[in-house]
Amino acid sequence: MDQLTLGFISAYNERVEPFMNGTIKVDGVELIPTYSHPAETFWRQLKFGEFEVAEMSMSSFLIARSQGADMIALPAFPSRRLFQTELSYHLDSGITKPEDLGGKKLGVAEYQQTAALWIRGILEHDFGVSQYKIHWYMERSEEMSHGGATGFKPPEGISFSRIDRSKSLKSTLMAHELDVAHVSSPWVRQANTLDRSSRIGGDDLSKIRPLFPDRMAEGARFYRKHGFLPVNHAYIIRGDIHRQHPWLAAKLYDGFVRAKALANQKLTEQIPTALMFGQEYTAKTRELIGEDPFPFGIKANRAMLDMITGFSCEQGLTPRKMKIEELFAESTLDT
After folding, report:
1. What is the pLDDT of residues 160-175, one digit of tens each?
2. Which of 48, 52, 246, 291 would be 6's cystine partner, CB 3.0–4.6 Å?
3. pLDDT band at residue 1 using 50, 70 and 90 as cut-offs
4. Residues 6+ away with beta carbon under 8 Å from 131
5. pLDDT value for 81
6. At CB < 8 A and 24+ separation, what contacts does 198-204 make?
7. Rounded mean pLDDT of 185-206?
8. Which of 225, 254, 286 finishes a domain?
9. Domain containing 254: what range?
10. Of the residues 167, 199, 225, which one is the last residue of a structural domain?
11. How many domains does the chain have?
12. What is the domain-level CATH number for residue 321?
């Protein structure tokens, strides 16, 4: 079989890095890696379809597929986070707990991003705060956003505004122009062409507090209730490549599985020595959320997929609840 050369774009991720750097190989396939900030990756792929294989926002993928976008996903989920624990509020907002967010101004980088989808769903279903009772503010501009590539329009009944281009989530929260904002994402400090918070901010954090002071406690609560951690991204294959090479999806999925297994084997070796109690923290994390909090495959993720597709439809991002069979490559449906 001739060698198939594929462009592969992704952020650095320890569970995927063995695949990106060539330690894990797939017979008959040569991957040409491009490392990129997720926000830029998704925008480029949604707008231009540049790469044959790409990391992709789960929420934007659901929207794009509902519109007939020519891409198919693999059930390899490199990124999971407890997005509600990344919210911070201003002390003068009168907020002391999640249930206080009704009637408040809440800022996110992008309304349709996966983080915002999970935040809305969790606030509504776990804390009783309706998405329609919150005033939503978005940092990204229309032209430089994932929504700009998918034709985003604010869902009916939602209070929606954009943050002035001279400002950012961080600066508006510090000035108490927002009551609460998603400013603790691990990506927010990394410069990219879509987000402004890495460039426009401030240093006075004296009145900024985390909505969940004990992130581990909230993470344990969510995991006990739902049995999974919320997925952020997946990997997609461009549709033309998938049709030309129907064997490819299963091969790539196997590569992702092997890469994650190798990364897990080396997990304890990767704990920075500066973290004096890193070993203990790792053990505590495993105690709270299990040995493998990043499961791949359909079977292990069915409850999560049911929830995220339900949230997407419920929030008016997709016109109907998308089916697993129309999202993932057929050869991966039994994984």
Report:
1. 999 999 999 999 999 9
2. 52
3. low
4. 120, 123, 124, 158, 315
5. 96
6. 199/168, 200/166, 200/167, 200/168, 200/170, 200/171, 201/168, 201/170, 201/171, 201/174, 202/170, 202/171, 202/174, 204/174
7. 82
8. 225
9. 4-80+231-332
10. 225
11. 2
12. 3.40.190.10
